[in-house]
Write the structure tokens for this entry.
Amino acid sequence: MLEEVQVDSYTERLGRPLEHTTAVDLQLAIFDTVEQARGLSVREAREIFAEELSARKITPPSGLWIDAAMTSAALGNHYIISNEARWGAEIALEHREQENGPRQERRA
């Protein structure tokens, strides 16, 4: 007898299992930074982003890339790495919010 396989929401949304890749982690770090850095300076956004990268054990991209991404973050805009990373991050955020509720901002 074959076992019934349950399809989780990740598979339903992407059409295949979500691969938790470095790109997805990096996109999550960007999303979480934007949530916390909206309206702050680029320098403050960079500090928050550095904390997010450290928490995820991600090696930071080049300084110029970070400058572009954090300028967007300070303006409240998401820097999108790729569509696949964005979709994976959005699904991971939905899952996290279902389990833990919305993430609280860490503004001072």
DSSP finds five helices and no strands in the chain.
